[in-house]
Amino acid sequence: MTDDAVPGPEAVPLLELRGVSAAYGPYEALFDVSLQVRTGRALALVGANGAGKSTVARVVSGLVPTTQGSVRFDGRDITDRPAYEIARRGLSQLTEGRSVFSSLSVEENLTLAFRRALGRKGVPDALARAYEAFPRLGERRSQSAGTLSGGEQRMLALARVLVLHQKLLVVDELSFGLAPAVVDEVYGALEQVLTSGTSLLLIEQHVDRALVLADDVVVLSKGQVVYDGTVAGVEGRVADLVLGRPPARPGPVV
Ligand code: ATP
Question: How much is the pTM?
Fold first, then answer.
């Protein structure tokens, strides 16, 4: 690239952490973490239990402050900005379990979210799009969200993101505790979210699932990045990196 060439949108990451450290009181959870989510792409953030994945999600969403480093989102410095401000800029976080109002019906949950974001007039069209994307929610529109199955609750949360066209969705263990068939459905929904133009930061225990959807992968170990690259570049080595095992040696030639 020449000096005066203008970088394309691909060259500017949607989300960028540079040298981020974070702590819970005296306990340091992240050390000098740098990573990027490219516009329109999915980044899988994987690592063993306690590696710091959820802490990255909380830092990005403004729920845990940094002790060092910076976070940029959509061209702006959002380091330690309040969570509501970051959410307003188009960054949503979904975690297992905490995303719907259980005493309200499916339709009331969606209406609340759409009215807040789009105004009263935008609600009917947004509801129609949500039910088109997730027909099961349409069938259950009068049911209270608390009585939906775990997978249906995740879909309700995803329907809001899909219709409201967030720029970035941070997904923290969304498939936790779900049966394999339901995980398939949740991943189908995530694929729709990605296809609709929302970038993804995907934290997932089912590493294999995440890697099918993701373009890039970052492996965290004890609060530090031990791999940052493309999914293709780490083929077959993710489990070793996650578990901190040395790379397998070739077996004896028989
Ligand atoms: P898991 O896959 O088990 O959810 P994780 O990779 O998401 O793990 P984090 O939840 O980010 O890991 O936790 C990183 C470290 O910070 C862990 O050692 C954890 O015990 C610690 N930690 C997390 N939340 C708090 C908290 N509120 N107070 C103190 N320590 C915490």
Answer: 0.87
